[in-house]
Write a structure and sequence with these properties.
Layout (H helix, E strand, L loop, with lengths): L1 H11 L3 H10 L3 H14 L3 E4 L9 E2 L4 E2 L29 H10 L7 H11 L12 H7 L4 H11 L12 H11 L4 H9 L1 H5 L3 H8 L3 H12 L21 E6 L2 E6 L6 E4 L1 H6 L7 H38 L1 H5 L10 H8 L3 H8 L3 E4 L2 E4 L7 E3 L5 E3 H13 L9 H10 L6 H10 L5 H6 L3
Parallel strand pairs: 4-7
Antiparallel strand pairs: 1-6, 2-5, 3-5, 4-5, 7-8, 9-10
């Protein structure tokens, strides 16, 4: 058994060039440019070429992506506006500085490559409060693992700085912070066992249940109020500046040309003078050793950037083929699609697909979208058909937007209306999707207009 574990560990070990390639792949355009500039400063073997003036300055894919004549039939309701794709939630603004800082902290958690991929997936699915905006079971679905494994990884992520990041809800967020700050048992008891009394200001009931004086309870409540209910607020701003796209899609008749948008970045090559010194007899052994290390590092770096281009194009091509209707109809409906689907299509590891789609943007004639937004979990209907959860969410949003503001729909009423339209969704699922869309409960929606 020990030999088997050792063998598995050796198989999982990555070479320095593979580690570098993975780290380069996950960078967004701004971070990649900075990484290149840093390497140029650190490594004397790397040279920056003068840019050549060309008619088409971007790096183009070798082949265009053609649509199939008979695409897979899949026709749920069209949930996106076709004007410029502005209602599609793929056009995600810049918030990477904060998330990148969280990702760096993952190095200290002792994750395997597979666990780290899930941890990063969690971080890329935070809402503007810093809460996890997707159900853990859906992340498990993307990575073909059960919810319990995702929850174990989530608990480690929630210990990052700031404490409470990736919380499931307000109660979870405050409890994480209270435990991390070693708050007293009464605070933990209030947050875990009497949370509804606390959030609804039922202080007299808290006094009775905990046998506390008004003064003692007041001191405890003041400590609780010092906890941060929104650890991501101001750092995950939904109105920040949009990122530079990594890819550009150009439509030509019935096909798409994929362009890697990196022509403005420094073009790299190896310094010939330093390279030639490796073969010179009058150069010391120590100098040659140093130059050899820098030569290998420079080679790996250039290859990693080239591999990033190829991988992004391959992933985008596979996405276009699977999301035929979306691109054909101009930001039309999305088909259910998992990371594993693309991994199987282009024969790459799922962690590679994950790195290729998080924080990577594509500019299309319909708007600029994050690649990961093209992935949509499936919801199975009673008929056996599977539709995108994005479809359900958009229908739910439409019902709330058009409801009677004097008598807003409850979650039960929404579930009933969805069922009548052919989408039998449980009330608990409706509640979860409503929270994901940042809609309060019916009572609060009614109160907001008075």
């Amino acid at each position: 058994m020990a030999k088997l574990k050792q063998s598995q560990s050796q198989k999982q070990a990555l070479s320095p060039s593979q580690v570098l390639s993975a780290s380069i792949l996950q960078l967004n355009m701004t971070s990649l440019e900075q990484k290149i500039l840093d390497e140029l400063e650190k490594n004397p073997i790397l040279d920056q070429n003068e840019p050549e003036v060309e008619n088409d300055s971007q790096t183009e894919a070798d082949e265009s992506v053609d649509f199939d004549e008979d695409p897979n039939e899949y026709e749920p309701a069209n949930i996106y506006e076709k004007s410029e794709g502005k209602d599609f939630d793929g056009a995600i603004p810049q918030r990477l500085d904060f998330i990148d800082g969280l990702i760096v902290q993952l190095d200290e958690q002792g994750f395997t490559d597979w666990e780290r991929s899930i941890a990063e997936e969690i971080l890329w699915n935070l809402d503007d409060r810093g809460y996890l905006a997707i159900e853990p079971v859906l992340i498990g679905d993307r990575y073909d693992c059960d919810e319990e494994k995702v929850l174990r990884i989530l608990k480690k992520v929630q210990k990052l700085d700031p404490l409470g990041i990736a919380a499931l809800d307000l109660q979870n967020c405050l409890l994480i912070q209270a435990k991390g700050a070693d708050k007293n048992e009464l605070i933990l008891k209030i947050l875990s066992d009497h949370f509804q009394d606390f959030v609804n200001n039922r202080y007299e009931q808290l006094q009775k249940k905990l046998s506390l004086s008004k003064q003692d309870l007041s001191i405890i409540l003041e400590q609780i109020k010092k906890l941060n209910p929104r650890p991501g607020e101001g750092k995950l701003d939904a109105n920040a500046e949009v990122l530079i796209p990594d890819l550009i899609l150009i439509q030509t008749n019935e096909s798409w040309k994929i362009v890697v948008n990196d022509s403005w970045m420094p073009e790299l090559s190896l310094n010939e003078n330093y390279s030639n010194m490796l073969d010179q007899t009058d150069v010391s052994t120590d100098t040659k050793k140093y130059l050899k290390e820098k030569f290998n590092s420079a080679n790996w770096f250039i290859e990693a950037i080239q591999q990033r281009r190829k991988t992004l194009v391959s992933v985008m091509s596979a996405i276009i083929n699977r999301q035929y209707l979306f691109f054909k109809d101009g930001a039309g409906e999305l088909q259910p699609m998992k990371l594993q689907d693309i991994a199987n299509d282009i024969k790459m590891d799922i962690s590679t697909i994950s790195r290729s789609t998080r924080g990577k943007y594509v500019e299309t004639p319909y708007g600029t979208f994050e690649l990961k937004s093209f992935f949509s979990e499936g919801y199975r209907l009673d008929s056996g058909d599977t539709i995108s959860t994005k479809t359900i969410k958009q229908l739910l949003k439409s019902l709330i937007d058009n409801e009677d503001k004097n008598s807003p729909l409850t979650d039960t009423e929404i579930a009933k209306k969805l069922k009548n339209e052919g989408y039998p969704v449980a009330r608990r699922t409706v509640a979860k999707y409503r929270e994901n869309l940042q809609f309060p409960i019916a009572k609060l929606r009614r109160e907001l207009i008075h």
